[in-house]
UniProtKB/TrEMBL annotation, chains A, B:
Acyl-CoA dehydrogenase/oxidase C-terminal domain mapped to chain residues: 282-453
Organism: Pseudomonas alkylphenolica
EC assignment: 1.3.99.41
Entry GO MF terms: flavin adenine dinucleotide binding; oxidoreductase activity, acting on the CH-CH group of donors
Keyword Flavoprotein: yes
Protein name per its UniProtKB record: 3-methylmercaptopropionyl-CoA dehydrogenase
Amino acid sequence: MATYTAPLRDMQFVLDELLELEHYADLDGFADAPRDVSTAILEEAGRLASGVLAPLNAVGDHLGCRLENAEVSTAPGFREAYRLYAEGGWTGLTASPAYGGQGLPHVLGIAVREIMTSANLAFSMFAGLSHGAANAIANGGTAAQKALFLPPMIAGRWTGTMNLTEPHCGTDLGLLRSRAHPQADGSYRISGTKIFISAGEHDLAENIIHLVLARLPDAPAGVKGISLFIVPKFLVNPDGSLGARNGVQCGSLEEKMGIHGNPTCVMNYDDATGYLLGEAHQGLKVMFVMMNSARLAVGVQGLSLASVAYQNAASYARDRLQGRAPGGAIAPERVADPIVAHPDVQRMLLSQRAFVEGGRALAYWAGLQVDLAHKHPDPEVRESANDLLGLLTPMIKAYCTDQGVESISLAMQCFGGHGYIREWGIEQLLRDARITPLYEGTNGVQAMDLVARKLKLNEGRALKRFMALVEDFCQEQGAQLGDCTVALQQALGDLKLATAYLLERSDPATSGAAAVDYLHLTALVAFGLQWARMALIADRHLADSDDSTGFYRAKRLTARFFFERILPQTAIHLQRVRAGAEVLSAFDPEQF
Amino acid sequence: MATYTAPLRDMQFVLDELLELEHYADLDGFADAPRDVSTAILEEAGRLASGVLAPLNAVGDHLGCRLENAEVSTAPGFREAYRLYAEGGWTGLTASPAYGGQGLPHVLGIAVREIMTSANLAFSMFAGLSHGAANAIANGGTAAQKALFLPPMIAGRWTGTMNLTEPHCGTDLGLLRSRAHPQADGSYRISGTKIFISAGEHDLAENIIHLVLARLPDAPAGVKGISLFIVPKFLVNPDGSLGARNGVQCGSLEEKMGIHGNPTCVMNYDDATGYLLGEAHQGLKVMFVMMNSARLAVGVQGLSLASVAYQNAASYARDRLQGRAPGGAIAPERVADPIVAHPDVQRMLLSQRAFVEGGRALAYWAGLQVDLAHKHPDPEVRESANDLLGLLTPMIKAYCTDQGVESISLAMQCFGGHGYIREWGIEQLLRDARITPLYEGTNGVQAMDLVARKLKLNEGRALKRFMALVEDFCQEQGAQLGDCTVALQQALGDLKLATAYLLERSDPATSGAAAVDYLHLTALVAFGLQWARMALIADRHLADSDDSTGFYRAKRLTARFFFERILPQTAIHLQRVRAGAEVLSAFDPEQF
């Protein structure tokens, strides 16, 4: 079974040394989590994750969820774990104190989320979706809706879901058919079938608050006619107590590749009572607030599973004896050397490490932008943070899930044939992780969001700001990093050329043909900036001989590995961007 | 459920037009399979695969194998399917007529193997392992052993296995502990535990012939003290009839990520009677003949599963309606266009196609080298074919399984969230395929075979020959291919630089650090040569307006896609090779 220990040292490095959170003490919530408090919170999260959630991960995978009489039971242990999770205050960590939350920084919330997800993705999805649904109500709800729904959701007594997909309608929400009919009392009757609803029905909470996209009778066709509704599993009386069972039921559970611990439900709405959330026909606006936060969270899922897979692969590689090190035995007293002595195993471990640590730095940086965008007093800072977040969200969702799967696959490879066997737990991580490039918008959709929307929004302001950040870093501090800076500048040059190529060509075929490669190129540069910043910090400590644990030396070597072997991939992405759409367009679809 | 139709047109293109098998009619067996016969054989294989094996693929996955009282039952339908398979003569297709085989060319055997594997990997492994075991007996056995064991194995009445791995001993066979004690009658008593034995016990055949590595009492330590033994499940009387049950039992079945239709057994040998195969202490020599053939077959597995995944993804992409094509609606009468109209979906499909068709060309070419190496009258041709095969085997095993997994993952991505759901069958293909980079020597081991052995063998003769083939092609015929040839020459230049770098540095750390990237670089050039040859043929037909079905146009465009977007990856592999081992060696293993 895979085991998990929260990588607290590296998390603290990112929060305290890289992002220097202490500089933001003026922002709401930051003063409540100075360094010692955030450390204590992460330690506590790590204890729950290692002690309770991680041991349940294989249980959820093996036993899955069961549907009987329209009720779903989760695997043994999940109820108790969720109770501990809610009681520990984890469901309300970053939520508004006005509704019972702790109001702590989002960046800290991301770190906690990483820990919980590493231990048990299927479990973490219950809380993750609730968090998103509560956010949507907080952003788009009326005062009465907030007062009624938020406190129990934030306390973890109720959970939430997102209901977008229908059998014939995934990416293309314009095809949505679910209907909402207004009632005399101001409520609506919702009917339709939704699929792929994670945590749509379960036994962890007293109530489930579904957020459901549907069309009003007078709705315009397409995406401009979609409204969002709050549809509780149990109707809620004005005093917050539970009323009658609503007309929504789980029709079946999907059999799937992984995340068996979380029920993926077909949800049937049959004249269910719902309440409009936000304005009529403007449902996607509210939903997209939720989706953006969910997309960032999914990117963190890719990173989280890669982190736990890496830990287990490294541990296996230190224990497994096989063959001898290239330079001669390093454990001559044993029958063979540990396989960590083999350069190819070192290469695989460092590849994982470069992704996991770089991804952590990038995701937490994005988390900080959420805080800045919401809480900073200076509108220019808020705008800049929002711009950056708009770019980073699709990048992190797509790159960190594509590379997350790849990284876990490398972890499996470190185990040899044993990696394919259930008992080691790696194969579950790979199966679980494979959902992440698919849900919350496939990675192709993320890439189109970046290329077709974000790239051109406000005359490309966001990307210009991002590239200027990298450029400024190279000019102001890069000289100290030598070859690493040369590599970063080269990658930035590739990004500039790719960007210019796309901005000169406005046809959507070229954008579509280039999208995924452009996203990977951009993400590599973003990783490069984080690695360069981290390398500088490491160099300072090494220059001061302040490295008693070897942490900074390892960080510096991993940075070099990244610049030597990972970042130069920007060149092939540029080449593919420039290949354009000619071959794709010329290929007869019937020949596929 | 995934469906399968053998891609006969493309297979015939490779056999007849690319490899021009008719030129080899003088070689043993080739005259028995002229174009019309080989076409009929592939059609018949396709019927069995689509009609019988493919529908059993999900059954094997869901129901798996069961162990009761040391007997293993396969999933319902497997026995009957195996009976049909054996009765159809597929177990003896390429085996020697002296023992009941049909003696057909190995290259045709590879094509048939691709078809059967695409339909059902777990099923195909039973016959694949038997084929390998029979080959080993044919190569290393005494006349009596061949006469006794080969006819029923070739007829499919008995199957075979390979027993190498032990719990503490995988790649490092020197650690092997199983023991063999000589008996007065010339036989041996074998004791030990073997793990990961595919098809180690089952109900498809009357007998199972295990080939088992073990040590004799006087064996030198390490790999020079390993002998190979024939250990039948039922002892065999001199007349070929079955005798007593031998002392070998399946102790348990592994729970694993995929290939559930094939039992992965722990095999316990307890004073089992065995017979020395080949010479004492020389077991690895015979085993490696079997392993090399198995490695080529595993490479074909990666390709086969990618082929069926591609078919299903293409079919889904033509059916699924979502969004509109970038240039405006192509199906304005429908609610949306098929997703095959989206450039990113086209990109994913062409990436798969470039791999599958290029891999098919390369694997069949390697299959032809097997025939040439065994059957050609000219010793120089045999030597050259052997050289090439030595290079191609690790390349195809590792690259075609790494890329096979990647290609199936792209196929899943074409399905969006539906790809994660069991009913579509894609997730099974991905789980099944993930064993292929692990077994028969991990891909890292293949890369070390290439870099540490094959590269330097006979002063690098094999690689020089391979590079000369590419060079000559570019000079003699490349002018007609324009940019494609420029790309191929660039890739060859990268290979030369990487080769020179490695030949100048003899330290094993550098070889190990570079191995996997060097293998991928080499394989890309090998794919490039095949794609260039195929593009030339396509151009000839297009120039003659001989393309009524659009086959050659599609082939030519796929070639261009490969040269524009896939082949240029050689640059990053060269860069990584040149990064050397410095960072890897400097990293403290305790820091992982």
